[in-house]
Amino acid sequence: MFNKGNSAPLTDLDQHRRELHDVLARWDLENIYNCDETALYWKLEPSKTLARHPIAGTKKPKDRVTIMLACNATGTSKLTPIFIHKYKNPRCMQNVNHNDLPVHYYWNSSAWMQGSIFSNWLRKLNADLRKAQRCILLLLDNAAVHMLDKDISFSNITLHYLPPNTTAHLQPCDAGIIYSFKVSNSYASFDFLILTFIISVNIARFCARTGLMHTTHMLK
Questions:
Q1: Do 32 and 130 belong to one domain?
Q2: Which H helix or E strand runs over 35?
Q3: Most CB atoms closer than 10 Å: which of 30, 37, 163, 168?
Q4: Higher pLDDT, 114 or 60
């Protein structure tokens, strides 16, 4: 799904950049957007110690969701991310209203982006832009899930597909934006794990001092 194709035609990159500049020149920077998906292995922990040696005997978890990020060229507008899970209502989200989440929540058995999800998001975005009386240019890679039927068009969104095998060089989201998001997410996850460990240790010490039974459910 996330394979951008074969190696980029480096000899043609300059020409593709010039063509892209010609397209972008007709738009204000704040109205030029880019979106792209990435797989997020949310249970993945560091594979190295502080000494930078691999941790022996560990198996990397493969629990994954798909995240799609979108923002404009000036960084002043970050659209609500798409979050794709494997389940409609995972256990941790029982009694949670999806509309109250800070993301557009979708689900399917593979937790991958699908054409139906992408077109649904575009319709929602177009409706919001129409209310705001804005028109935007949306840069996309040529992944199959981004390809819409020829009879589908949007009043306030102009889609521009980047040439095949060039997204690693021309797409803004591949130029550090997604990487920065993953780094921030890793820091937040590690902070939560450390906080959980500290709380667990303090509870265990409290129970030992007071003679209370230290049960597993008390740590949850």
A1: yes
A2: strand 32-40
A3: 37
A4: 114
- The answer to whether residue 61 is domain-embedded is yes
Q: Which amino acid is at 35?
A: C
pLDDT at residue 3 tops 50: no
pLDDT higher than 50, residue 86: yes
- Band the pLDDT of 53: cuts 50, 70, 90: low
Same domain? 87 vs 130: yes
Query: Looking at the domain assignment, is residue 18 inside a domain?
Result: yes
Question: Cα(first)–Cα(last) distance of the chain, in Å?
Answer: 36
Residues 49 and 155 in one domain: yes
Q: What phi and psi, each to the nearest 5 degrees, are found at residue 107?
A: -155, 150
Q: Is the pLDDT of residue 132 over 80?
A: yes
Q: Considering its fold, how many domains does the chain have in total?
A: 2
Residue 38 has pLDDT above 80, yes or no: yes
For 33, phi and psi rounded to 5 degrees? -120, 160
Instruction: Look up the domain containing 27 and give its range.
Output: 11-174
| 148 and 182 belong to one structural domain | no
Q: Which helix (H) or strand (E) holds 37?
A: strand 32-40
Total-model pTM: 0.74
Alpha-carbon distances, residue 132 vs 129, 135, 136, 202 (angstroms): 5, 9, 11, 51
Closest alpha carbon to 158 in 129, 120, 194: 129
Alpha helices in 6-106 (DSSP H): 13-24
Q: Which two tokens stand for residue 5?
A: 């194709």
Helix (H, G, I), strand (E, B) or coil at 96: coil
- Residue 6 included in any domain: no
